Amino acid sequence: MSEVISIEKHAKTTARELALQFLYQCECDRVYHFSEAHYAAFLQNFNVSSRSSQLMQPLVEGVMQNLSDIDTQIGSASQNWQLSRMSTTDRNALRIACYELRDTDTPPKVVMNEAVDLAKKFGSDQSGAFVNGVVDRLSSKLRTPS
Question: The domain spanning residue 51 has which CATH number?
Fold first, then answer.
């Protein structure tokens, strides 16, 4: 049974990585809404599996559909940092984390760990610590302790 959980965990991590890359590409292309054509081209160009696409699509659609609200929440949680001054990678890792905290039942610790791992893998040396601090503040604002 633990092997099944491990495989699913890996699939979700892969989906988050692909979601980050897709959102990064959208920002570079100045596409700030979910576009089926843009998404299909990404899936084809990067040979994304159907399982990864299944897990990735709700993340990217959710972020894109709620982008203004998500950015406002990140802006209020990122002390002394404007969204425009953040690296594109950090900004999009935070967007995914904020969406998951707001709109999914993913445990906050999982959201935190995944966001920090994304920032470390795709960002700068300081990205992990920065993302950790912002996600911690977001989690405090968006989730009530159980």
Answer: 1.10.940.10
Closest listed residue to residue 113, CA positions, set 3, 19, 9, 1: 9
Number of domains in the chain: 1
Query: What's the whole-number average pLDDT of the chain?
Result: 92
With contact defined as beta carbons under 8 Å apart, do 129 and 81 qualify?
no
Is it the case that residue 102 has pLDDT exceeding 80?
Answer: yes
H helix count then E strand count, the chain: 7, 0
Match 């995944």 to its residue by tokens: 114
- Residue 125 backbone class (left: φ over 0; alpha: ψ -120 to 50; beta: rest): alpha
Smallest CA-to-CA distance from 42 within 97, 34, 102 is with 34
Which two tokens mark 44?
A: 């084809």
- Over residues 29-44, the mean pLDDT reads 95
pLDDT at 80 exceeding the cut of 60? yes
| pLDDT at residue 1 is higher than 80 | no
User: What domain range is 131 assigned to?
Assistant: 2-142
Residue-by-residue DSSP string for 39-56: HHHHHHHTT--HHHHHHH
